């Protein structure tokens, strides 16, 4: 399933394919890891600030296990980054998320995500 448009960087198209591919296909994150810079800078409401691709590949498992569908609302792509606004269909409802990416050398260098953490947990986010 394609989440973002063809105008998005290929690394983001691959990233969303992994996110929507289901936990049974995720395994240990082998498909996701090559898309991320080793020193990925991640920031999110529940995780806080995390540095490194390895912690991110472990942390995102709960999301992948629980998301049924991602429905794109809007995306903006520029030379060094992208922003994606979408609805994530979780077991007990829909949660709106915004992700802000810095992309360089074909990899995601930084990812900042915004959502209501209480709503996310209440609707089955993991």
Overall description:
With 126 residues, the chain is of the alpha+beta class. The chain has a single domain (10-122), classed as Roll (Nuclear Transport Factor 2, Chain: A). The chain is built from 5 helices and 6 strands, in the order ααββααββββα. It has helices spanning 10-19, 23-26, 53-59, 61-66, 117-122, and strands at 36-44, 48-51, 69-77, 81-90, 93-104, 107-114. The protein has a 6-stranded mixed sheet with strand order 2-1-6-5-4-3, covered by helices on one side. It is globular and about 40 Å long. The protein starts with 9 loop residues before the first helix and ends with a helix.
Silhouette: globular
What is the name of the CATH architecture? Answer: Roll
Give helix % range.
Answer: 25-40%
Number of strands: 6
Q: What is the count of helical runs?
A: 5
Strand percentage lies at 35-45%
Order of the strands making up the biggest sheet: 2-1-6-5-4-3
**Name of the top-level CATH class:** Alpha Beta
The CATH topology, please? Nuclear Transport Factor 2, Chain: A
Total individual domains: 1
Order of helices and strands: HHEEHHEEEEH
What's the Cα radius of gyration?
Answer: 13 Å
Helix-strand makeup class:
alpha+beta
Q: Averaged pLDDT, please? A: 94
End-to-end separation in angstroms reads 22 Å
């Amino acid at each position: 399933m394609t989440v973002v448009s063809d105008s998005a960087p290929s690394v983001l198209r691959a990233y969303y394919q992994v996110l929507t591919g289901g936990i049974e296909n995720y395994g240990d994150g082998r498909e996701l890891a090559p898309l991320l810079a080793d020193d990925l800078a991640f920031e999110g409401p529940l995780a806080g600030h995390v540095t490194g691709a390895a912690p991110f590949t472990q942390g995102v498992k709960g999301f992948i296990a629980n998301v049924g569908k991602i429905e794109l609302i809007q995306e903006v792509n520029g030379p060094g980054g992208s922003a994606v606004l979408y609805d994530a269909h979780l077991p007990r409802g829909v949660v709106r998320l915004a992700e802000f990416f810095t992309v360089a050398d074909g990899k995601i260098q930084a990812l900042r995500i915004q959502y209501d953490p209480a709503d996310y947990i209440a609707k089955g986010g993991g």
